[in-house]
Design goal:
The structure is a single chain. This protein is 37% helix and 21% strand. The protein is an alpha+beta fold. The protein has two domains: 3-256, Nucleotidyltransferase, domain 5; 323-539, Nucleotidyltransferase, domain 5 (2-Layer Sandwich), CATH 3.30.420. The strands form eight sheets. Strands 20-21-22-19-18-25-26-27 form an eight-stranded mixed β-sheet, with helices on both faces. Strands 1, 2, 3, 6, 15, 16 and 17 form a seven-stranded mixed β-sheet that branches. The radius of gyration is 22 Å and the shape is globular.
Length: 540
């Protein structure tokens, strides 16, 4: 018998809300998107700031929930068995006892806390940017190291140093979806994967939970940390007030869900040891399922806690992935966009449909240029970079432009540059986890997987089969639905979700393109090494 659930995929620029039917497969019956603002730099009052408004999250959640019911009137709010979440991770949402935000939440992109990181970790004798004794303590307890300026610990310490009155008001430190769980149910909780994302979570067998030795080491108050719950656990029920605002039935079950790094792989069907998925949304990453914790501190990679308690997701992140394609749209292809609007534009189109059409048109454009973009190479570091090197000063560039270089080569090189970086992270991962089995194919997901040409470029760059499932841009929502399915015992384990997610298309690598991509990839890797000092001069 079919079950109906609603899931929320909360990204950097907007929310995707899906009404999903769970039966022999997971089927998205209706979806709705809504955007919200990202406040950066001058808008936050500090260099490197990146904030969002929690009320804008909630308003978007309410609007889209009502819209999916309007799109599917045959499903009533009373038929919805539960709601769950997939969200961006490593945000800092500070709330008081009443659940009100004390200040605007900081996103994972926020880089303001450079001095706090320096004082807390980056001093004395260092390995991988961390003072060695603290590094060793971190690895002993958590299996990962808070050595990035974007880690939430240092943002928390920044508030303590710069906003002492706000710091005094803190009752709990939450992440993005945990705030929305609070708003929906009144419960202060944090799922295991979000807790791990704070880098304050003890991952040792039998000791799982908040780690007091690490909290003491980095100056975090234990009382600020919320009770930890499983992603598949029912953590509360929708309150009367929230039900009115959302358009849901009071008492609807609220499940923990997970972060995007945890659930997108699940939604793509990458759930067994050795399965690899590549995600290209606003940010991007490579994740491989492994049976134990692995860390590569030098490359800023770690095996993170996910939804499945038996496995970890070995994870490396690219700060700006498909965001680079958005940059192309806004700043490079304006005349192309004029052509696009004449060819595809329709005032009645939804925001999502316009995005689909845009991808279709850009795909047409870049497909006219040969592999390798006639020697042009793009670096997709438009907001610094995190892995396999941590450098907030790194930036994007076009390399090897000549008189006969056209805009179309530039556009194609952006897509290739994203794929090169994914290859870089994948190869670095596989050096570390070579003893585990690996799948011959990679599952590709996110908005970047909407384009056939992009999928083929990725297959050619990796020289691997690239597998795409139905609605690859919605798999975070599908992963959140998987949490409900396990929580309701509709499926025994997370591994069983693979049966509910059929493959739509498989792209096979074109061996004729291997030589040019191998050549360009080597140059791509050299570009950071050759320009690290220049980035520091210009951007530090």
């Amino acid at each position: 018998m079919s079950k109906y659930v609603i899931t929320y995929d909360i990204g950097t620029t907007g929310i995707k809300t899906c009404l999903i039917e769970i039966d022999k497969e997971m089927k998205i019956l209706a979806s709705s998107t809504a955007g919200y603002n990202l406040y950066v730099d001058e808008e936050t009052g500090v260099k490197g700031g990146a904030e969002q408004d929690a009320d804008e999250w909630w308003d978007a959640m309410c609007t889209t929930t009502k819209t999916v019911f309007n799109k599917m009137p045959s499903v009533s709010k009373e038929q919805v068995e539960g709601i769950s979440f997939c969200s961006a991770m490593q945000g800092l949402v500070l709330v008081d006892k009443e659940g009100n935000c004390i200040r605007r939440p900081m996103t994972y992109m926020d880089q303001r806390a450079r001095e706090e990181l320096k004082k807390g970790m980056a001093h004395g004798f260092q390995i991988a940017g961390a003072e060695v004794t603290k590094l060793l303590k971190y690895l002993r307890y958590t299996g990962a190291v808070s050595s990035s300026v974007k880690d939430p610990i240092w943002k928390y310490r920044w508030v303590e140093a710069h906003e002492p009155e706000n710091f005094k008001k803190i009752y709990k430190w939450l992440d993005i979806k945990e705030y929305l769980i609070l708003r929906a149910s009144g419960e202060f909780v944090m799922t295991q994967d979000s807790a791990f994302g704070t880098l304050l979570y003890d991952t040792r067998k039998g000791h799982e939970g908040w780690c007091k030795p690490v909290c003491d080491m980095v100056g975090v108050k234990m009382e600020h940390l919320a009770p930890i719950k499983k992603s598949t656990e029912k953590v509360g029920e929708v309150t009367e007030q929230a039900a009115k605002e959302l358009g849901l039935a009071p008492g609807t079950a609220v499940y923990g869900g997970g972060g995007d790094a945890s659930l997108i792989g699940v939604g793509a069907g990458a759930v067994e040891v050795g399965d690899t998925h590549i995600y290209s949304g606003t940010s991007g990453w490579v994740g491989t399922v492994v049976p134990e914790q692995v860390v590569d501190a030098g490359a800023m990679m770690a095996a993170i806690v996910g939804v499945n308690p038996k496995t970890f997701n070995y994870f490396g992140e690219l700060e700006t992935s498909n965001k680079c394609v958005g940059w192309v749209k806004d700043h490079l292809a304006l005349d192309e966009i004029g052509v696009f609007l004449k060819k595809y534009g329709n005032a009645a189109d939804s925001f999502e449909q316009v995005e689909f059409n845009m991808y279709d048109y850009l795909e047409e454009v870049i497909d006219t240029i040969p592999a390798g973009s006639n020697g042009v190479i793009f670096t997709p570091w438009l907001h610094g970079n995190r892995c396999p090197f941590e450098d907030p000063n790194a930036a994007g560039m076009f390399f090897n432009i000549r008189l006969d270089t056209g805009k179309t080569e530039l556009i194609r090189s952006v897509v290739e540059g994203i794929c090169f970086h994914m290859r870089w992270m994948l190869e670095r991962q596989e050096q570390k986890i070579s003893k585990y089995k690996k799948s011959s194919a990679v599952r590709f997901c996110g908005g970047g997987a909407l384009g056939e040409t992009t999928c083929q470029i990725l297959a050619d760059v990796l020289q691997r089969d690239v597998v795409v499932v139905e609605s690859p841009q919605n798999i975070g929502a599908v992963g959140a639905a998987a949490c409900i399915a396990v929580g309701m015992q509709l499926i025994p384990t997370i591994e069983d979700v693979k049966k509910l997610i059929p493959v739509k298309t498989t792209y096979h690598p074109n061996t004729e393109n291997k030589a040019v991509y191998d050549k360009n990839f080597k140059v791509f890797q050299n570009l950071y090494k050759c320009n690290k000092e220049n980035f520091a001069i210009l951007n530090s």
